[in-house]
Amino acid sequence: MVAPASACTPMRLGDLGHLIEVVATFLGLSLFSLGGGNTLLAEYHHLSVTQYCWLTPSQFADIYALAEAAPGPSSMIVGLLGMAAAWPEGPGWALLSAYGAEIAILLPSTLLMVVACLSWNRLRDSPWRIAFERGLGPITLGILFAIGVKILQTADTNAPGVAVSVLVCLLMLRTRISPLWFMAVAGGLGAFGLINR
Q: What is the CA radius of gyration of the chain?
């Protein structure tokens, strides 16, 4: 059961111990990001909104949108979450926390992938490799579907927003229209106040 927002007290990062706790949290998650950084989005939401109370659900949705709209890897959201965690302590702590969280989420998984790629070609014809690759596909897609549902629950709080989300999902599945067009149209609708959260 999620505690009411009024009972949620943000964790303070004004000392090195709490900063190390943030970095350790993302270090622990790094090796579980099968299929990319978005597969951990539900856990990021739980940590930043429910457990540590760094953000409100609306702020989390805004940070997610910013991380997805910016060029670069989807794991950029972790740096933004780290920055949000320490922002009340000032810009210096916020930047330190952002860089610490981003390095913590990227470094272990990157090192593991380098080691795996160096030895993966040796297993090129192995039935184990083929089975492993085929097995991870449905798992990753299931995780990404669950993440999409979580984002819809977090971001869409009114009927027009839900309608736009459903329409975009249908068009993405049935057409070859670039997602950039959907983002531009949704941004325009939001800018003119036709949809909002």
A: 19
pTM of the model: 0.69
Give the tokens for residue 25. 């949290």
Question: So where are the chain's domains?
Answer: 5-135
pLDDT in tens, 110-169: 888 888 888 777 777 888 888 888 888 888 778 778 877 777 777 666 777 778 888 888
Within its chain, how far is the Cα of 36 from the centroid?
9
Query: And the tokens for 89?
Result: 């302590």
CA gap 158, 179 in Å, rounded: 22
Residue 186 tokens read as 């949704």
Consecutive H or E run containing 191:
helix 179-191
3-state secondary structure of 133: helix
Q: How far apart are CA 24 and CA 179, in angstroms?
A: 35
